[in-house]
Known about the structure:
Blueprint: E1 4-5, E2 13-14, E3 34-35, E4 37-39, E5 42-44, E6 49-54, E7 59-65, H1 69-84, H2 92-108, H3 110-121, H4 125-146, H5 150-153, E8 159-161, E9 164-168, H6 174-187, E10 191-195, H7 202-213, E11 221-223, H8 228-236, E12 242-246, H9 249-259, E13 265-269, E14 275-278, H10 284-296, E15 308-312, H11 316-327, H12 348-364, E16 367-370, E17 385-388, H13 395-398, E18 405-411, H14 414-421, E19 429-433, H15 437-446, E20 451-454, E21 473-474, E22 487-489
Parallel strand pairs: 3-7, 9-10, 9-12, 10-11, 12-13, 14-15, 14-19, 15-18, 17-18, 19-20
Antiparallel strand pairs: 1-2, 4-5, 6-7, 8-22, 13-21, 16-17
Amino acid sequence: MTDIEKKQDRAPVAKDWTYAPAPESREIVRIAERYGHFVGGEWLEPSETYETIAPATEETLASIGQGTDEDVDRAVAAARNAFANGWSALPGSERAKYLFRIARILQERSREFAVLESLNSGKPIKESRDVDLPLAAAHFFYYAGWADKLEYAFPNRRPRPIGVAGQIIPWNFPLLMLAWKIAPALAAGNTVVLKPSHTTPLTALLFCDVVRQADLPPGVVNIVTGFGSTGAALVKHEDVDKIAFTGSTGVGKWIQRETAGSGKRLTLELGGKAANIVFDDCALDQAIEGIINGIYFNQGEVCCAGSRLFVQESIYEPLIAKLKQRLATLRVGDPLDKNTDVGAINSRDQLEKIEELVQSGIDEGAEIYQAPCRLPEHGFWFAPTVFTNVAQSYRIAQEEIFGPVLSVLTFRTPEEAVEKANNTPYGLSAGVWTEKGSRILWMVQRLRAGVVWANTFNRFDPTSPFGGYKESGFGREGGRHGLEPYLRFDE
Ligand code: NDP
């Protein structure tokens, strides 16, 4: 807080609210200089390495193993061995104990994980601390509860584990995506080989420590790090029974082609271009918060981000005015600062992709507004951005930007809103803001999206299934539905 304004008969008030830095300490985290692959409960020395950095500063954090075909092969063999020699035959109540233990350890070590996640991914500490970590632990708790109840979850279907699951995850929610993948797979009695994104391997590697602490039998969880080629080796491996992938639609399509005819089970959670639809009878201030959360949460690097805002014409002007006011209050900067709302972009590549798409928006004729903020000199940053005067055909209204960039469009009637919202190759999520319950139900029945939030956005819960339609992929994660892709049924 800077100057204090003193007026007679009134309590002193701040002229200008600024925040003193409140950085979370890095002391709690110990990062090794070099990491290998976690295979069969041991660290496997990598033949090649690359360096992982902190996107906020470009500082090198550690050397990471670049997984080769041989590394993947050893990890799959370890997973197969663990599956065949104990894990799949263990009673569900015993598997549950391990999952409960993992959940508890994640809770106990949550600060350490949150700091590491923010360092390596660039996301604000308040998000990793208050969203990623609690949800990751909640996923293990939730699926621990199902492990001994599979017969009840799928009555008369004799659920059995599939075998070895190959799991490939992206960089936007590194630990949370790991939890979404590993918890249901283990609860169902499978073993896993997981490849984190090459830009954010550190929390997955710290998770290996949790696996050991929980005394999980060796080989049940294996982590092989590396670039896309490591993921491709996992996809192609003949002894993998199932692939679970979260990432871009392009890579998802390649995986689908590659696994076709192989007998491998497949689930794909791909991109999105969610419509956040605001009707004129909504609670406007609440909707503004939902819009902000929808697109600037995790720098907009969220597959279900509300990146297309549809505003009913009658409230367009007041809404835009309020949105710009709110945008000006977002604090962009050090991910480890507890006051930060918008952190660093995950990588130079991602920043360049955002910049290219934003330039296309300007070139095509949209009007750009950026929050007045000073971006740090080092690292990868992009100011929260709003585009108005956007036509449906513009690339910024069609393509996934995966950054803090909102495209605003308008509509007059609910029918028009539905038609425009569904006019995308994607179908992952949507939001509806209205005071009318009947209108919510009407909209939900017509929106082609796996998740529709009403008067809220980006709300996640392990009990609730999540997944897409069309080019957003297929298969569901979360809830009882999330167990099904990890089970076969002897019907
Ligand atoms: P990718 O789809 O390339 O990456 C996702 C994961 O797949 C990473 O672990 C990646 O490894 C791995 N991978 C890459 N190529 C292959 C392959 N041929 N076979 C198997 N695995 C592979 O996404 P990007 O990180 O490159 O992001 C690009 C765009 O994708 C983003 O701009 C965004 O639009 C979208 N995206 C969507 C996500 C979602 O949740 N739906 C998440 C992330 C991105 P590595 O990272 O080491 O290359």
